[in-house]
Amino acid sequence: MPLLHKIAGVVIVCAVVLGLTLPGERRGRDEEDPSERAGAASKTTPTARPAKAGATPGSGSPSVSASAPILAAAPGAVAVKANELGQVPVLMYHRIVAKPERPLDRSAKELYDELTRLAKDGYCPVTAAEFVSGRFNVPAGKHPVVLTFDDGTPDHFALDAQGRPKAGTAVAIIQRVAAENPGFRPVATFFMTRELFGMEDAQAAAALKWLQQHGYEIGNHTMNHPNLSGMSQKEVRDEIGKIEDRVVQLTGRHTTTLAYPYGALPEKLTWAEKADGRYDFQGNFVAGWRPATSPFDEEFERWEINRIRSEGKIKENDCKRYCSTAWLEHLDKNPHERYTSDGDPNTVTFPKAAEYRLAKEYRGRARTY
Fold it and tell me: Which residue segments constitute the domains of the chain, with CATH numbers given?
């Protein structure tokens, strides 16, 4: 089992400089390798910044002059106060168990309660792949949320004798919440390691295909869950490539997104972006402390997308202020900071005052009010 299940630590980047004021003002790393406490993230920051959102083919729009006027927003988008430059919660889960024993564990009831809260608060799940593509269909006035599960443990998914998600697993809980709350899409992203839900090949192949057929995403979390920050290019690519080969062998499909183990970045981010046709990601996720930036924002960094640890407001590791419960409360109280959909996946609507934040690649799709 990965070391993160024994010790859940936190690397807080630049905490003193940022002053620990509002949640939105702090960046950091969660679930660090115990052998690298307080050091992994600081050693992995590259000197050259990777391409931003519009650099991925097909993610933006046809070339449009930076001085070209932006069209007016549709009346329906204005009515719901659409803001597609707002923040998106990307929630990070690990084991889902009846009785939590480790710091990153969540009980089945805690998962059910948090998902129900999201549904009642107007959130609509999208996969990590949909999020990084900049093309996701969320109803007008609703808010996208990305549910991610790391490590592919048995409590995430299994099929019962009738071929349905086994009761108590994460997928069964997601399906239940969706059935109880129309409009709450039953989708999530499962970042896989060699564990593959604890299944043998034939069983794992059936499970992965079931998930993909029902709209869930299979992501890459490396073969053995190592800290990539101290590894060579070959080692990084082998770790990523081996689980990618396994997933392709079982499903016939490549993954689209990767989550860095422990949130630790390799020496060069390009090593984890693509490798000779073996893998070619569209976005990679860290284990952060804040919601993700909109993919349409010029500050969006697709190779370092933030996630939020699912946790209540406890004192441990500053979760009182920076884990999922606190962040969801913060966004509820500050709706202008949250991504609110205009209901049209082909346009990007936001208040006129936020125009300076729009990545130029999306100007052709932009609408303001």
Answer: 3-45+84-342 (3.20.20.370)
